[in-house]
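Copper resistance protein D domain-containing protein (Halopseudomonas bauzanensis), 144 aa
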Amino acid sequence: MTYLLIKTLHLLAAMAFVGTLFFQVLILAPAGRRLDASVRGPMSQALGQQARRVIHVVAIVLYGAGLTLAWRYRGVLADPFASHFATLLSLKILLALLIIGHYAALIFLRRGQHIGERGMHLINVSLLVHAVLLVICAKSMFVL
């Protein structure tokens, strides 16, 4: 695949990922609180299942393309403080790893039924904040 195609796939997957988080945190959660519990439960479960199906594919494309793009800059990553670009790329990778950590924690907590609706919302808010910071780093890499 060409660099431009990989970069485009990475960008589109990032848009889908951040857009999904944005929708969950700022639209779906507030709207869901206004619904009766008998409606909110089944709706939340159905939407959650569909979001997980979609986000898994998006995450594979996003991280696969990201790894492919990062490989090209492995020399730059050898000294993360040598330039603004290297520092921001390293920070971007760290934020991406933290997002993976969030999902690992979420899987663990959901399997053990140790997390409720409020905890899920807080993790989604944290994911959105990390994803927005990652996007800011990505945009800044080519400006600074």
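The mean pLDDT is 91. Residues 34 and 124 are 19 Å apart (CA to CA). ok done for today
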